[in-house]
């Protein structure tokens, strides 16, 4: 008699799970979201790279989480901002898990991986922190000490509860206080040498990620893992990069290093108490001399890009490199020391290894990197180095190894995907290796928003805002009854606009970036209809201010990079050297991306209405204006000042 057969389990479809997840967050069906989820699933199955532009309101996070969960192999989700990471962890992933259970799908295990410095270190909490001389300090004094005591108690409580112990769940604290209870990856003793390894929050997070179906991380860790080859993530089959318009900048940021005389001096002081013997003391003396040589060389080097380092700077970098290497060799464990690794010595080694690596990189003078001198807030010179182009590294070490889905509300520049795709290492127009799709937005931009270009104004100059522009700002703000987000190209311009508008419209609350912490300013702006908020780059992206509080977005000028920006100018020259148009590929693409992000602050939900006012006539008069305009949301466009003022007054009265 044949054995009874069991009815095959029907695998839930992407659409089934997506519908359940949308219900779990109280949402409604969005055609763009459905298209995105099904297209992402297809790309993952076919192992073909995909670029998905999904406008604000599409619900793109569930659009990629659902197919990632159903993929069958581990998928990494990489975000650029903590805000999106929080949204995934606190809202979207719980909804996804609930949806999977409700339709009979396997409930995915999801984990979060952050850099080691984002977790409390129990060794540092319990043993103390080495000071600049390498001596363990129990608790610093004063207000900082009180913060550290609170954080230590919290960390012990987290350990007892076997909780996450990461910075985002910690009590309010300063950056200095957090450094007292955390370590970076170089300072860490390592699981084999640390007596608290079994309780370690960072190690537990990585163990959890090794069991997960979906791993959430950030762009920087993705870059370190995939490009630098430092294992930060468990093995994975594919990666979804959200906020992908930020990827090249974040990868560049992760690969940027800096060095100054102060850092070398601090490393020498810390190493001094850790070495023994005349030879070791001489090595530390050499490092101190190298710090002096570097400081002197930098004081005679102009701020800006260094095409070719002067002899004094080259010699100083070589001195730092060689001295740091020699001191590391001198930091040997004494024969009479007990088992285990001394935390002070480990921290000294970490600093020295980092110094050696950076100095060696700076001294190499590679054509693929740009070296420049910047100024700190105190006016002291600081040497920085960064890769000119990260596209080749992304191509060879990410796209060649993994299936990559890139998504953002802003991926098309000048009306197409090619500019951004090329900047990330994908060949232009190569339909065999990648596909681009725009799933649109649920918003009716043509009816909800007006794009106004003040064509009658003079082109912006180098001397900041002119009187005509200040008058235009005041007229627009007055017509809108406040309700204005002002996006400016510099802090000086934002402050000048705020001061002039306060003088002209004394009955309105005009807040400027710097008047308080940005989250507090955003909160004030969101709860008071007549308030205006003026600021710079941090307001252009990632600030979500839906509703009647924001009915006017003012952009003072096309946000081209500064002509003296070392990295951008080096990238332009590299493109030109390869036969391309450096201005359009670098400067115009950079400006188009920021313009699109800035204009995107206006329409955040289906009932939002308002005006984006660009005070730079070049958007409609310059040859490159059409490229920039094609990158913006499809709002109704006009240069008619009276029509715009009338529309703002009607909105204010409604």
TrEMBL record:
Keywords: ATP-binding, Helicase, Hydrolase, Nucleotide-binding. Residues 19-298 form the Helicase ATP-binding domain. SMART domains: DEXDc, HELICc2. Gene3D superfamilies: P-loop containing nucleotide triphosphate hydrolases (3.40.50.300). PROSITE patterns: HELICASE_ATP_BIND_2. GO terms for molecular function: helicase activity. Belongs to the helicase family. DinG subfamily. This is ATP-dependent DNA helicase. The lineage of its organism: Bacteria, Bacillati, Actinomycetota, Actinomycetes, Propionibacteriales.
